[in-house]
Amino acid sequence: MSPSSGNWRVGIGALLFEGNTLSPVVTELRDFESKYLARGEDVLGSLRGSNTEMAGAIDTLELHAVDIAPLLATHGGAGGRVSAAAHAALTGDLLARLRAAMPLDALYLALHGAFVAQGVDDMEGALLALVREIVGDIPVAVSCDLHAHITTEMVRHADILIGYRHYPHDDTYDTGRRCAGLLLRTLRGQIRPLTVMHKVPMVVPAQKQRTKSDGPMGALHARARAREAAGDVLALSYFPVQPWLDFPDVAFTAVAVTDDDPEGAEQAAADLADAAWRRRHEFDVETVAPAEAIRAGLAVEGGPVVLADAADCTGGGATGDSAVVLAALLEHAPQASAVILIVDPETVAAATAAGIGGRFLARIGNKLDPTYGAPVEAEALVERLVDGGFTYTGGLLGGVTATMGPSAVLRVGAVTVVVASLSSYEYADEQLRAAGVDPWRCKFVVVKNPMNFQQAFADAPAAFTLDTPGPTTPNLARVPWRHWTRPVYPLDFQE
Ligand SMILES: [Zn+2]
What we know:
Number of domains: 2
Strand content: 15-25%
Structural class: alpha/beta
Strand order of the largest sheet: 12-13-16-17-11-18-10-19
Number of strands: 19
Bound molecules: zinc ion
CATH superfamily of the largest domain: Response regulator
Largest sheet: 8 strands, mixed
Radius of gyration: 23 Å
CATH class of the largest domain: Alpha Beta
Mean pLDDT: 96
Number of helices: 14
Distance between the termini: 56 Å
Helix content: 25-40%
């Protein structure tokens, strides 16, 4: 322990949300509350012991007897633009608490890096500019999701900017520890951190971004860790970016933090970004039509065969209300047991009215976001009604108690349809378990994420990434982008 560290006072806060400009659905304050939203001292009470960045920072700072000023901490998951009112309420509260907490010796903020609100394309850059006005020149450390859209404004106002090392994001706690650790070294005068970014013109889908793999991100992970271990950079981070943002300069970004060495930082960031560029084709994804995947799945022995409807990923900003794969299952595998989760508060209400054991004519899905398909009309039997609460078993929300709202388990033909009132981030199979459904007893399980299922259902006999419509499509070249800076891979450079 440093002899003077007990005198330091460090502010901490978290304001995370992953925006998706292809989703027309507006995100509201309740979407933050349904994940986690803690204010003031409650940040310490409610997030300690979780896998969040805040928990990692709290443990590290307390270990060194630093006085913590907790501001506000929330994660709104992912979705369409945050409403202007919710954005103003959250940033206003955070900044008011920051003003009240001054004077501080340092500040740590956990941000996503792709928070978009109505009228605000770069929430993080704008927030950090306001933060800088309040705190002056004290050290400010920022951590971002690996899918952050890093901007010049963000780098300008942060002394330290690092990202999650892993996707799936299981190192959020460790990220908070690393960020707080760099701040402590800065306060002790051991380092003078300086942050530089470097972009390469590529935007890639998420399916091949697993960091604990021998794929392209595994190689970049090893390269970055080797540079850090060599000691010439304090932190080297990769940001393959959340692709569904129709903004200029959305691109794969590398960020280096060095000890007052601008050339070294530029060299390290450029080296990592260029290594990603050379591997760009390795990120390409093969998708399969639902009918074809179902046919192939029926020919496979055992289950569950994973049907990944990655285009309707709530973790990437979709509503989770697509019924496209449900329609395909009813048509192409009417006898096969299957389970699918669909966000549809209207159908939950209808099921609640019908009661357990009741039957009703349901119109399921594609109502919150009608852009990409039509509701499935079918007779439904109400098997169960549940409150929808659950605890995440891992990942960036590991240990956090969340809710999918009042939910119903319906039987539609041979398919078990879990209808939820609220969208929630899919880590493993928490939502299905909370509904009393064991996906391992099914022939097919529909997941709505591009990556996490590769971990949660690693032992499944087969998995297909489907060619389905939606705001989180892996087929990036098919989206009519209006604002992306060109040329950019995979729209261009298809040599
Ligand atoms: Zn992410």
